[in-house]
Amino acid sequence: MTPLEGPLGEAAAAARRGELIVFPTDTIYGLGTRPDDRAATTRVFAAKHRPRDLELPILVATIDMARSVAVFDDRAERLAGACWPGPLTLVLARAVDAAAWDLGGDPATIGIRAPHHPLALALLAETGPLAVTSANRSGHPPARTCDELHRLFGQDVAVYLCQGDPLEGAASTVLDLAHGPASILREGVLGRDAITKLLPDEAALLDSRPSS
Known about the structure:
Elements: H1 6-16, E1 21-24, E2 29-33, H2 38-48, E3 58-59, H3 63-67, H4 74-83, E4 88-93, E5 109-113, H5 118-127, E6 130-134, H6 146-153, E7 159-160, E8 173-176, E9 183-186, H7 192-198, H8 203-208
Parallel strand pairs: 1-7, 3-5, 4-8
Antiparallel strand pairs: 1-2, 2-6, 3-6, 4-5, 8-9
Helix pairs in contact: 1-5
């Protein structure tokens, strides 16, 4: 693979060094770094003011990349095949390679998705999986423009990859498959109806649970 050049290459190199980067996804701007470096993920929690009990999600470029860090059952394969790249985060059991990652939250599980944004996918193809959370202070709305991002994070972020137009997307839908029957933890861009069509055996359970 030819190394990326320009701002994208700079962002990939910074993430590999364990520095923080900001880049657009198909939903909102993400704040990310390499997931296997405890000092790096600690920087994410500090910059975002994020509680340690909230796990950092992982973004990947492909399903194959996701399988290297998470355990996929038939449901996960079906959902990822139909919805990725796209706004669906799957909470799965961790694979061995990710068992020691310090992501906060439950050390046995991992939230993972492939974003539908060409810049994000090009970056992830170069870096491998990244720990990425929404680019905002915890409890506040995500930043939509580069100016807002710079005001929030300043020099805490090594590289800002910004697009010209503000990002107006909503957060991804989060679906837990790690604790038995599927459970919608957060209903976002992808609606409940789309998920129940892909998991017809669990449709009644999904319909009976309010999302949070």
